[in-house]
Amino acid sequence: FITEMGSFLRVHGEPSDHATLLRLAQHGSSSIMTLSETLHVPVGGTIHVYVAGSNQQFWDMQPGRAPTWAAGTAYPSIGAIYLRSPRVRGGQNGPLEQVLDHELIHILLGRAFAPQRTPQWLQEGLAQTMSGEFGPHTTQFLQEGMLGGGLISLHALSRGFPSDPLRARMAYAESADFIGYLRVTYGDDAVRTLIDELSHDATMAGAIR
After folding, report:
1. Strands (E), the chain
2. I need a surface site. Which of 11, 122, 185, 191 has the fewest CB within 10 A?
3. Which pLDDT score, from 0 to 100, does residue 134 have?
């Protein structure tokens, strides 16, 4: 692997992906500061981003268990992010920079909540909305869920996401929709309040109030 240096992060990958590594280092250096300021959480130590040159390498590098559908993974405790090279991403939607932003949010929130775990609805909702993944397709999926009576209550979301892939997708969509509503209605100050309250052991209901 070769390494491209950025502010607060190092991007590692194969020489054949040098242009991608450079692009990610430049984007991440700017993005991480914006995300840190918006969330009002410190960056912490250096983040290492690894770009796998093959799907097998992506799975072999994982230091923990990752969902099979993952476009990228993040491990806040060791400050590591794992991505697939554009050469092997296939038909996955969204630019790699968007995936990086998503995983950077996981790192920042994981560090802010350590040693406790970040509530999944909060981290997935913020990761989707702040990386630009939340859009009309999410709304369409929610509408289909409402017609089918498949929406998940906020109380149920606070206990964790379902293991069933379809229900998990609904949980992701609802989390993004809820965070999107809070940001549009009350601004990013509401997000900062949620993070502060929940990281100091407030209940979901209490933090939202």
Report:
1. 2-6, 9-13, 47-52, 72-75, 80-84
2. 185
3. 76
Q: How many CB atoms lie within 10 A of CB 25?
A: 19
Query: What is the C-alpha separation between 46 and 10, in angstroms, rounded?
Result: 7
Sequence-separated (6 or more) residues with CB below 8 Å from residue 168? 161, 162
Give dist(CA 112, CA 205) in Å, integer. 20
* Alpha-carbon span 22 to 10, nearest angstrom: 10
Residue type, 37: E
Residues of the chain scoring pLDDT < 70: 91-93, 141, 144-149
Give the tens place of pLDDT for each residue, 116-142.
Answer: 989 999 999 999 999 988 777 777 767
Report the alpha-carbon angle 108-204-35, nearest 5.
Answer: 20
- Write down the residue that tokens 């038909």 correspond to: 91
> Do the strands 2-6 and 80-84 form a parallel or antiparallel pair, or are they unpaired?
unpaired
> What amino acid occupies position 84?
R
> Using an 8 Å Cβ cutoff, are 175 and 157 in contact?
yes
* Continuous segment of H or E residues that includes residue 203: none
